[in-house]
Amino acid sequence: MAIRLPHIASSKKVPKGYFAVYVGENQKRFVIPVSFLNQPLFQDFLGMSEEEFGYSHPTGGLTIPCNEDIFLDVTSHLN
């Protein structure tokens, strides 16, 4: 059973103003607002991703190497 937050969705199509990231060991896909890119907490995720994968991501999309629960907790605090 998935937890849906108002600003995080899982979807095949990515609406304008959003982008997809893959999170956790199972590479769960989340569609999040591009405004998160300006948030220092999300920038920490980007730094983790760069350290782990560089600029070559296995899924072809942005992969965030952290637990899904942590990702959901952190992003639930972003506006």
TrEMBL record:
Protein name: SAUR-like auxin-responsive protein family
Entry-linked Pfam families: Auxin_inducible
UniProt keyword terms in alphabetical order: Developmental protein, Growth regulation
Annotated GO biological process: response to auxin
Superkingdom: Eukaryota
Species lineage: Eukaryota, Viridiplantae, Streptophyta, Embryophyta, Tracheophyta
Family: Belongs to the ARG7 family.
